[in-house]
Amino acid sequence: MLLEIEGLNAHYGRIHALKSASLTVGEGELVALVGANGAGKTTLLRTLSGVHPATSGTIKFEGRDITRMPAHQRVAEGLIQVPEGRQLFGPQSVEDNLRLGAYRRGGNPERDLEDLYAMFPVLKVKRNQPAGTLSGGQQQMVAIGRALMAKPRVLLLDEPSMGLAPLLVGEIFNAVERLKEQGTTILLVEQNAYAALAIADRGYVIETGEITLHDSGAALLANERVKQAYLGL
């Protein structure tokens, strides 16, 4: 497995936010983590990326224990997070935001930029505009593009559909599906369970910090408990 989480715990003071969570992501897989607001989804991603410390448990990346590795080293290793809320540098141009994703690596950023513009043509049109002036959906494209410029081994996507109109949600998930088809390994954290599980190879359900279900994306979509709790069926 490319990414392995075993018995992971995390706290915010006395609050036990993540409780013995175990999860795996294989090379080229799209794995979805779904759950309600406050279930621990973002905490798990923040702990994976090193922004929040693990209390106990292990995180292995390509077979190596990175549980205590600083966040910037995890980025250099290829564990790249697209944060909830996008967190762009609003006054800077779209292209400057994208280029920031490549600052720790070599390669050919000009070619990578053209690849991104082929995926998100609207960003090429608006490449010189301040990123903060774009629509929510376009800003999400910039956030994903910035992460892709870092050449992720695993892309950690945190709530990419948050705050977007339904039409834009579909556009973002189409882009995520295209990345999957290109072989990008993705851990997708998402409150929109139907959209996430519909494109996932496998999925996990997290409730109050605990992972309670794990199956293929299709099987979870058909699961009566998931239908009632997350799909409104």
From TrEMBL:
Whether Lyase counts among this entry's keywords is no
Q: Does the keyword ATP-binding apply?
A: yes
Q: Which PROSITE patterns match?
A: ABC_TRANSPORTER_1 (PS00211), ABC_TRANSPORTER_2 (PS50893)
Recite the UniProt keywords alphabetically: Amino-acid transport, ATP-binding, Nucleotide-binding, Transport
Q: Write down the superkingdom of origin.
A: Bacteria
Could you tell me which residue ranges the ABC transporter domain spans?
3-233
**Gene Ontology molecular function:** ATP binding
Query: Family assignment?
Result: Belongs to the ABC transporter superfamily.
Official protein name in the record: ABC transporter ATP-binding protein
In the record, what lineage is assigned to the organism producing the protein? Bacteria, Pseudomonadati, Pseudomonadota, Alphaproteobacteria, Rhodospirillales
